Amino acid sequence: MIKDDLELIYEAYLKEDTTTSYGCLMIYLDDDSAEEIRVKTQSMFPPEILADDGVDDKPHITCQYGFHEDVTIEEITEFCNKIKTPINIELGDISRFSNDEYDVIKVDVRSDDLMKLSKAIRSYFEGRITITFKDYHPHMTLGYVKPGSNPQIDDNSMFNGKNYVFDEFVYSSAGMEDQYDIIKNG
Description:
The chain has 186 residues and is α+β, with helices and mostly antiparallel strands. The protein is 26% helix and 33% strand. The termini are far apart.
């Protein structure tokens, strides 16, 4: 069986040097949309199959991971204010990353806006971010389950075609010590 690109990416992530920490730029769903996703996700996962982290309580999409510690929140905010928003996304099918401890259940994301944003970030912060993976594969994590559990959820299309619009960013500093809400031109 050939592993898909995202599973290979996740395996590489698990093997990364964890002594180095990086910052991360993300977009979060608004509260009502996040609650809708959480409720649907919880209905798919009986409590006995959940891993320690359970259902993700803040559904988000990572725009870029890998910002070096010297990148400041002021620079991130300045960059975000230059980005054309809103960012439109469309959800796809449910799939998973697997490892020995748990499976990550996620929804694939389609978005020309996110693809352009990824390229812009990589260009703007060139030399100040570590690019772990050549290609950007946006997805939204739903939750964490015990390995191999609930296999019938794979390729589920319950979220397929749902559209969302984002115009606010969240930046987590290296080591996830601080988290900043970035409201454009705010």
